[in-house]
Amino acid sequence: MPIAEGIPAPDFTLPTDAGDTLTLSSLRGQWVVLFAYPKDDTSGCTVEACEFRDALPRFDASKAVILGISPDSVKSHVKFKAKFELPYTLLADEEKSVLQAYDVWKEKSMYGKKYMGVERTTFLIDPKGQIAKVFTKVKPAGHAAEVMAAIT
């Protein structure tokens, strides 16, 4: 079933950059911003991650939790987080099971070569655990403000 607004967000448990695990359903009662991005420390992903970092006080005021997810390893997330002082949790989905469940692990094409990768997408999950909004084909610049506007 495709991910759509109004359906329950698929639950998951994944390793975090802090060396523990996080289960999505443990965050019920809060807004959750789950942003799926292709790769740590690449230009677009860095812009997006830093915009969420800079907007964090506004998300905190709305009692929203920000989670970044990519197929990178915990070790890669630790370096990325430290380099850009990212104050929120990064989730490592090396098996790509959650990325597939959220239908963002897709065939992509660059310079005529086809490959599998993450289609940059953000899911806004409401306090009841439902998908409130899906942002597809995200442009990194200005995206955090766009997500914040959907919460308020």
UniProtKB/TrEMBL annotation:
One of its GO terms (cellular component) is cytoplasm. The active site is at residue 45. SUPFAM superfamilies: Thioredoxin-like. The keyword DNA-binding does not apply. InterPro entries: AhpC/TSA, Peroxiredoxin_AhpC-typ, Peroxiredoxin_BCP/PrxQ, Thioredoxin-like_sf, Thioredoxin_domain. GO terms for biological process: cell redox homeostasis; cellular response to oxidative stress. Belongs to the peroxiredoxin family. BCP/PrxQ subfamily. Thiol-specific peroxidase that catalyzes the reduction of hydrogen peroxide and organic hydroperoxides to water and alcohols, respectively. Plays a role in cell protection against oxidative stress by detoxifying peroxides and as sensor of hydrogen peroxide-mediated signaling events. This is thioredoxin-dependent peroxiredoxin. The lineage of its organism: Bacteria, Pseudomonadati, Gemmatimonadota, Gemmatimonadia, Gemmatimonadales.
